[in-house]
Amino acid sequence: MARHYRNRKRILVTGGAGFLGSHLCDRLLDAGNEVLCVDNLFTGTKRNIDHLHSHPQFEFMRHDVTFPLYVEVDQIYNLACPASPVHYQHDPVQTAKTSVHGAINMLGLAKRLKCPILQASTSEVYGDPHMSPQREDYWGNVNPIGLRSCYDEGKRCAETLFFDYHRQHGVPIKVARIFNTYGPRMHPRDGRVVSNFIGQALNNEDITIYGDGSQTRSFCYVDELVDGLIRLMNSDEDVIGPINLGNPGEFSIKELAEKIIAYTGSQSKLTFHDLPSDDPTQRRPDITRAQQLLGWDPKIKLDTGIAHTVEYFQNLLNVKQPQY
Ligand code: NAD
Ligand code: UDP
Ligand code: UDP
């Protein structure tokens, strides 16, 4: 036990009240660390971290990362940023500011503290890729002026800042390119495909497929993704990334809808709607780097992950007065 506490770190998680961030806080606390969760609650909710408030090693600070932050920590996970297209397009200027000013402030903090900082980057840096699966050395195909650009280009600029702070100031960086991740605590109304389809199926509502449903995504279960982030943060100093983190299983959106209908036994019908502009047609990670450098290899199959996620959404529906 004593040894356990000697290794305890004080860890900052920005975006810690969000979907991924709250799972990350849980895991870091379980490992015996102190966690400072910084979030402005734009898309995150207190409900995601309610269970942590009485934890003696957990602290929540409501703060917007576009403003400077002066705290003392040993590691920084920078996850603050809306991730669902519906949310990041709601206030695109704020989205770009969060990625860019947020990265500058968190990198300034890491520079002052000389501490490692991990950036939650995204498969969106590949845009609508001409290469599949996507390897980290692919530069991507991104529209700089479209509706998704505030997120895609914001995240690309954040990567640039991470590598420049590393080269110019010697900041120890880690850059993860996260592919579509799903699981419990996804916001039921955040507009992402897994949460939309499960909510619609459980309510026997029409399933809203955008386009003809032939576009593909690769879905990673949240527990495995969080494990990948922690492995990357604690990897050798020369492992800085970028490193793809995602499950290489690739499914069309129509296949996903059919799986969810079959699993829930829903009466829902598939309906087809306009495809949003710049919606990538395919997405699948090459995870050779993560396998070799982190020993990370996600195993949870989509069917299993969907079962856990459906259970979470069923429980939410059974709560008479939901907190969200
Ligand atoms: P999420 O929306 O649930 O969480 C983001 C969190 O950041 C929320 O709690 C939100 O309130 C907070 N936030 C937003 N702007 C902020 C600001 N200016 N200051 C402080 N906090 C702010 O999304 P998520 O799925 O948990 O994503 C977390 C991170 O992982 C994001 O950076 C996202 O880009 C990245 N990512 C996620 C996925 C995925 O599939 N979930 C894929 C690729 C990348
Ligand atoms: N910053 C911060 N916390 C710190 C140190 C810096 O929020 O502990 C912010 C600060 O607002 C600054 C930004 O990080 O604007 C970048 O810091 P850096 O040292 O790179 O730049 P400078 O202060 O020289 O502009
Ligand atoms: N999508 C869909 N119906 C929905 C929500 C999303 O068909 O109700 C599609 C969307 O057009 C995209 C894919 O599902 O092709 C994944 O969308 P999501 O917003 O989850 O993530 P991203 O586009 O960022 O990968």
Q: Which whole number gives the mean pLDDT?
A: 95
Uncertain parts: 320-324
Side by side, the strands of the main sheet go 3-2-1-4-5-6-11
Q: What is the number of helices?
A: 10
What ligands can be seen in this structure?
A: nicotinamide-adenine-dinucleotide, uridine-5'-diphosphate
Query: How many beta strands in the DSSP annotation?
Result: 13
CATH superfamily of the domain at 10-184 and 220-248 and 285-299: NAD(P)-binding Rossmann-like Domain
- Kindly provide the radius of gyration, computed on alpha-carbon positions and rounded to a whole number of angstroms: 19 Å
Terminal-residue CA separation: 38 Å
| Major β-sheet profile | 7 strands, parallel
Apparent shape: globular
CATH topology grouping of the domain at 10-184 and 220-248 and 285-299: Rossmann fold
The CATH architecture category of the domain at 10-184 and 220-248 and 285-299 equals 3-Layer(aba) Sandwich
Determine the fraction of residues in helical runs and give it as a percent range. Answer: 25-40%
Structural class: alpha/beta
Characteristics of this structure?
cytoplasm, NAD(P)-bd_dom_sf, 324 residues, 10 helices, NAD+ binding, lyase, binds nicotinamide-adenine-dinucleotide, two-stranded parallel sheet, 16% strand
Which helices and strands, and how do they pair?
Blueprint: H1 2-6, E1 10-14, H2 19-30, E2 34-39, E3 58-62, E4 75-78, H3 85-88, H4 92-113, E5 117-122, H5 149-169, E6 173-178, E7 181-182, H6 193-202, E8 207-210, E9 216-218, E10 220-221, H7 222-233, E11 243-245, E12 250-252, H8 253-264, E13 270-273, H9 288-294, H10 302-318
Parallel strand pairs: 1-2, 1-4, 2-3, 4-5, 5-6, 6-11, 7-10, 8-13
Antiparallel strand pairs: 9-12
Helix pairs in contact: 2-7, 4-5, 6-8, 6-10, 8-10
The structure holds nicotinamide-adenine-dinucleotide (NAD) and uridine-5'-diphosphate (2 copies).
Main location: cytoplasm
Cofactor: NAD(+)
GO molecular function, one term: isomerase activity
